[in-house]
Design goal:
Radius of gyration: 30 Å
Order of helices and strands: EEEEHEEEHHEEHHHHHHH
CATH architecture of the largest domain: Orthogonal Bundle
Length: 366
């Protein structure tokens, strides 16, 4: 069993999974009596981020919101705490990869590698279920929280090798629950997956998440990131203008689904579906029968990825072991050669002396 690299209370940190500007997410475990062990993901706020009061408030808000969210398609928040000045958030561990990582693996050695339509539609349907739940969530007083994720993107969609799909990271979500409010003109989120109103620092609502998920589906079906540029500013400028209709027309899906995407990613929020539930129904009608086939296809791909990852890890372990053995041999080699050299010198000296004595007629008495 691999030893922990850090311990935070009852959580033993094993290895990093991902890192961002504010925090690092680790694979960790909770150990208990009689061999009990449970894998978890622990998000730890970076030291420099922990010195910023606004960031700490956002982190606390994320924990508070996570405690409210309970849905099969949203990664659960299990615990929140602080140990020796380190703020952490313990979350459900998803045994798989992010959608972003899967897309990169599918594109290895290829310029463009789209996902199978059934698989891409299944992932989208599952995220829509999580978003629909989040968007309609109400507080204890019964009032709507008006929750907006604001960061729906491949990086924040986790795929379990069983075929489960989980939306995660509500760190920059906005809504009535927040104590920290986004300052006017401040843009948060990944520029390549922003709605036009979000990219222009305008007011966002649930329809912005709808647009971002549409862009994510385009990325899955085309294999290409929706908006690219030399820097974040250039990407945002392109995102403000919205996606070009031609990008949707080029997708390998039926016309009904293309029209659904066009509506979901209308430039004006008022022209989109009224909510994610309406979008979900429209997608189901346009792509009937893709659900179970998509889940099976996704599970098959993820299990292959898991095998490759395990094989690579075993290869690295063997290489390290072989390297250690070689290093040990090399450490012994200089000493061995030195001993052999000294022995040869002694033998040579004895032979030389014996030869000289023989020439002089000096030898042992008979």
């Amino acid at each position: 069993m691999r030893g922990p690299i850090l311990v935070l209370g009852k959580y033993e940190i094993i290895e990093p999974i991902a890192s961002g500007g504010m925090a690092t997410v680790y694979h960790a475990r909770v150990a208990g009596p009689m061999g009990f062990e449970k894998p978890v993901a622990v998000k730890v706020l970076l030291d420099e981020a922990a010195e910023d009061e606004d960031i700490v408030r956002m982190f606390i808000d994320e924990a508070r919101l996570g405690a409210r969210l309970s849905h099969p398609n949203i990664a659960s928040v299990l615990d929140f705490g602080e140990v020796s000045g380190r703020y952490f958030l313990a979350m459900e561990y998803v045994d798989g990869v992010s959608l972003s990582t899967l897309r990169k693996r599918l594109s290895r050695g290829k310029k463009i590698s789209p996902m199978e339509p059934d698989m891409a539609l299944y992932v989208t349907d599952q995220v829509l279920r999580g978003l629909s739940y989040a968007h309609t969530l109400r507080g204890e007083d019964g009032k709507a929280l008006s929750l907006v994720h604001r960061d729906v993107s491949p990086q924040n969609i986790l795929l379990d090798k069983s075929g489960a799909v989980k939306l995660c990271d509500f760190g920059i979500a906005t809504g009535a629950y927040r104590t920290e409010k986004t300052r006017s003109g401040l843009v948060k989120g990944k520029a390549g997956y922003m709605s036009p109103e979000q990219a222009s620092a305008g007011r966002v609502d649930a329809r912005s998440d709808q647009y971002s998920l549409g862009l994510t589906l385009v990325a899955m079906l085309s294999g290409a990131t929706p908006f690219v540029g030399k820097d974040t500013h250039e990407v945002r400028v392109r995102a403000e203008k919205g996606i070009d209709r031609s990008r949707i027309d080029e997708l390998d899906v039926n016309d009904a689904l293309k029209e659904v995407l066009v509506k979901a990613m209308s430039l004006k929020p008022a022209d989109r579906f009224k909510d994610t539930e309406a979008l979900s129904r429209a997608m189901e009608e346009a792509a009937a029968g893709s659900g179970e086939a998509g889940r099976r296809a996704l599970a098959k791909v993820l299990q292959k990825v898991a095998r490759e990852k395990k094989k690579k890890a075993e290869g690295v372990k063997k290489a390290k072991k072989a390297g250690s053995a070689t290093a040990g041999s090399r450490e012994l080699e200089p000493g061995s050669l030195k001993g052999l050299r000294n022995l040869l010198i002694v033998v040579g000296a004895i032979a030389l002396i014996a030869t000289i004595l023989a020439l002089l007629g000096v030898g042992p008495e008979g």
